[in-house]
Amino acid sequence: MARPRKPSDPEAWPVPCGRCGGHYQIVASWPDAGICGYCYQQAKRTRGTCACGHVGVLPGRIGGQPACRRCSGVRLNIDCKICGAEDELYRGGRCQRCELAVLVDQLLTNPETGVMATELVLVAAALKSMSRSNSGLTWIRQRHVTAFLEQLAVAPRITHESLDELPKSRTRDYVRGLLVEHGALPRRDETKIRYREWADEALVRVTDPQMRDVIERYIRWHHLRRMNQTEQVHHGTFLRSKQAVTVAIDLLNWLAAEGVDLGDLQQAHLDRWVATGPSTRLVGDRFLRWAIRSRLVAPELTLPKHRRGTSRRLSAAEQDEAIQQVVHTDELTPRDRAAAILVLVFAQQIEKVVRLTWDDVTITDELVTVRLADLEIAPPDPLDRPWRLLANSPVHDETAAHPNSNWVFRGHSPGRHITAMSLRERLRTVFGIRAARLGTLAELSKLAPVAIIAETLGYHPATIERHAVDSAASYAEYVAAVSQAAEAHRS
Questions:
Q1: Which of 47, 153, 373, 408 has the fewest C-beta atoms under 10 angstroms from its C-beta?
Q2: Options 1.10.1760, 1.10.443, 2.60.120, 2.70.98; which CATH number does 316-490 get?
Q3: Is the pLDDT of residue 452 over 50?
Q4: Three-state SS for 212?
């Protein structure tokens, strides 16, 4: 990234730069003009094809057009002493790619044996082949990253278990992801592992030993058993399970403070506990149902279900304004715009959106289709344009984190998609995810029968029924109206 320029100072530097015209210190006198430090750096980074056919760095100028050193007469050392390629030199006469290779080999080689572990050879090769070497250098030269890689280089073995023994850090998780993504370690469900670690810490918050035993059983035989029955634990499941256990701990700690055993729990106790705390205590009905099935409490005990449907919804005017921002401004990246359209126009849940792969997307000259489960969505022009841009320039494709990733919405972590929470934050500058989705469902339920909307959007009819107001038009008319409004705004 180029350094921001300081204000031009004619008094200190009366002779202007021959290229930018700014009054800065002249650092080089080239055939075309005296060059300031900013233009000097830019010249070393200018690449292309000279009029003579030379392909590489074009630091000079002839007739206002970039030119190679031979044609322009510019004298500049941009020849890497290791690979010989023309490039901006980083240190010791080495280009950034060669400097990265040297640094990677130094950090990942065991200094005592002079040998690099087999698992690290794969990661080293991936790091050295990054198309954006400067990103690799920026990351690896951070002190905590350097220290971690040096520690890893001397480790007697590299396994998931040995990594788990190291202090928790983002660097540990990122390097683990690199090892998995490049085949050095087997894949495992990290969300499930995170939940187990969280649960172990949560048990410490239970004040009574007998109550702690109950919570441990609740975690093991309810939440973890259900997680073990799925191939992959989604982030939403992780959050709901955390909330259920947290509220259960709150209830059991309250009972312990009141001197009430769980087996002696009465309805009056539950009512008083709910009345003296936040509304999220109603989530305790999940634990209560389990406790009844496990015959720990009386079967007649009840808790009202946690109320839903009170969330804010975007109005039709707010939705239209958000769509115009998404489709016709550069406020969001193509990736974020593509996700926003699925939420704003098609009322899709963000948890489903982030799990899309390119196998779910088909792009032709005439049509873009996106498949979510058994549902196929075909955003019309201009709503399909962000998808076409994203297909041509996928995110995170120039680092070692996603060498062969098939995720549409790639995340920062190696081989993993962006999290729903992260995408929510990125879109928050334009609209709230939940408010937008509920607003879309509310508007659609005014236009079409429940069955049509449920089938078209992939929802259960009972879900749409809660949003239904009346029936008058078709869903296709709604999408066409949105498309026409967006196109009219652009023209």
A1: 373
A2: 1.10.443
A3: no
A4: helix
